[in-house]
Amino acid sequence: MVAGSCTNEVTVNVSVDRIWKAAACEDHILLPKIIPQYFASAEIDGDGEAGSTKTFNFTPAAAPLTFVKDHVEVLDHGSHTMKYKAIEGGHLGRTLKSHAFEVKFEAVGADSCVVKTNIEYDTIDDGPLPEEEVQKLTDLPIRMMKSVEAYLIANPGVCA
User: Fold this and answer.
1) pLDDT tens-digit profile of 69-107?
2) Where are the alpha helices (DSSP H) in 83-130?
3) 56 and 46 in contact (C-beta within 8 Å)?
């Protein structure tokens, strides 16, 4: 097993409160609407706050992945920080033994913010995660945030 981490950040042209609500608090509702080509459906066990689990079911376009179940460890509305850990599905058992995300949303203007993601993982085998897999891990949050941004800009009443 080899531990690793990667980070990324992306600026979005939406207020921190709107992107927080859409991407952290209501992701299980909005992602299947915003990115239906990859998210077939989502369920939540709990109220969405820390301690809840969210299961995202994927379409065949996300193959070989079929679903991922995430445990919400932190959902801090004051600092706009969330932490969650994959507990089932996704890359677990394929290439990763564990997989966790910390996402922080920081305002940089009235209608813009920076979304910073830190991803920590442990590989199953004794080798490092191949660079192409690390790139996929870092690209995914950026693509998702840009999709959420585009949806919110096109729908100004959502998460307002």
Assistant:
1) 999 999 999 999 999 999 999 989 888 999 999 999 999
2) none
3) no
The set of residues, in sequence order, having a beta carbon less than 8 Å from that of 47 and lying 6+ positions away, is none
How many independent structural domains does the chain possess? 1
Give the C-alpha separation, 159 to 102, whole Å: 22
For residue 160, being part of any structural domain is answered with no
> Considering only CA atoms, which of 90, 95, 94, 117 is closest in space to residue 104?
117
Cα of first residue to Cα of last residue in the chain, in angstroms, is: 44
Look up the CATH number of the domain holding residue 115.
3.30.530.20
- Please tell me whether the overall predicted TM-score, pTM, comes out greater than 0.90 for this model: yes
Tens-digit pLDDT profile for residues 20-64: 999 999 999 999 999 999 999 999 999 999 999 999 999 999 988
Domain that holds residue 93: 3-154
